[in-house]
Amino acid sequence: MSVVVCEEVVRRFGAVTAVDGVSFQVEQGEIFGLIGPNGAGKTTLLNCVEGLDRPTSGSISVLGRHPVTDRHELTLRTGVQLQTAALPPRITVAEAMRLYSSLYKAPVPWKELLATLGIAGKQKTTVERLSGGERQRVFIALALLHKPEVVFLDELTTALDPQARLAMWEVVKEIRDRGTTVVLTTHYMEEAEHLCDRVGIIDHGSIIALDIVPALIRDHAGDATARLTLTQPAPVNLDRGLDLELELESIDTVTKVQPDGKYLTVQGTGGFLQDVLAELTARDVRIVDLRTTSPGLEDVFLNLTGRAMRTEEQS
Ligand SMILES: Nc1ncnc2c1ncn2[C@@H]1O[C@H](COP(=O)(O)OP(=O)(O)OP(=O)(O)O)[C@@H](O)[C@H]1O
């Protein structure tokens, strides 16, 4: 069953088209990521899906319901991560949990939820004294209190340090493993790679690619690169028919060879590294170092737009 269905969603603010004809579906039990640079339209789209805003045109359904007109029912069946300002700074974590639990008929035991999220020891701490990562976890706990069927997480790990970000990824996987569908936005490609089952890449309000992460990388990321350091410069001896560059270029899986003194950079697909190493061994060319880089979602964005995501990051 599709948990979220967006069809040709457009959201304009005056002359600005923030979301420009977006269609996608989120399936039950998956972690679905909307990724893209700052200003791509992720939050605007998510606001429409959450019923906080209405699209200018197009249609959205969440759990088969309308996000705005069925808002009351959806409030009980979906979880939305609160913004920091939503809680008074002096309230303790336990007080916030009790307050929000009282809003639901059958809330999950909040102490267990805090333990799952790794903040069991913070019950007596006031919200203002929590670290950024701890506060994020409290907001997630509040969004999960009523055991929603789907939870929406917007820029979950922005402003978290790398360690807290890694911990948060585990939290999100745990949420999914407990049966909740997760829809999240991020501008960290690495986050989407590690966390999301499927990813929609948004740029200038449009989805420019949507698939499972390995398929996006396979189809759009380009080739892997190996940088080898040889004991001596790559041999070139055309009299004896030995030109390493030509030999390597003739391998099917190799797409590019760049010798540079003792260094040799080779790009290729599939098992190209194995083929290259076999060729070097056969030619008795010795290597002292080998570094490989696998392409990722960053490269997918670069190849699809001609721009790097990172240069557009502001946080
Ligand atoms: N209420 C508004 N009025 C006018 N323009 C808006 C409004 N909300 C968003 N926009 C514009 O719409 C575009 C998309 O913004 P949005 O916040 O959805 O992007 P985003 O992908 O979530 O970015 P970020 O990663 O920085 O949060 C931006 O150009 C933004 O300035």
Gross morphology is elongated
CATH architecture of the largest domain: 3-Layer(aba) Sandwich
Portion in strands: 25-35%
Identify the CATH class of the largest domain: Alpha Beta
Question: What's the average pLDDT?
Answer: 88
- Stretches with pLDDT under 50, minimum 5 residues: 311-315
Bound molecules: adenosine-5'-triphosphate
Oligomer: single chain
Number of strands: 15
Domain ABC transporter: 4-229
Pfam families: ABC_tran
Protein name: ABC transporter ATP-binding protein
Membrane topology: Peripheral membrane protein
Give structural notes.
The chain has helices at 42-49, 71-77, 93-101, 110-116, 132-144, 162-177, 189-195, 213-220, 244-249, 272-282, 297-305; strands at 2-13, 16-27, 31-35, 57-62, 78-80, 150-154, 181-186, 198-203, 206-212, 224-230, 236-237, 242-243, 254-260, 263-268, 287-293. The model is unreliable at 311-315 (pLDDT under 50). It has 2 domains: 2-213, Rossmann fold, CATH 3.40.50; 223-293, MTH889-like domain (Alpha-Beta Plaits), CATH 3.30.70. The chain starts with a strand and ends in a 10-residue tail after the last helix. Helices cover 32% and strands 30% of the residues. The strands form 4 sheets. A 6-stranded mixed beta sheet has the order 5-6-7-3-8-9, sandwiched between helices. A 4-stranded antiparallel beta sheet has the order 13-14-10-15. Strand 1 and strand 2 form a beta hairpin. The chain has 315 residues and is of the alpha/beta class. The protein contains 11 helices and 15 strands. The longest helix is centred in the middle third of the chain and has 16 residues, at 162-177. Adenosine-5'-triphosphate (ATP) binds next to strand 2 and helix 1. It is a peripheral membrane protein. Keywords: Antibiotic resistance, ATP-binding, Nucleotide-binding, Transport.
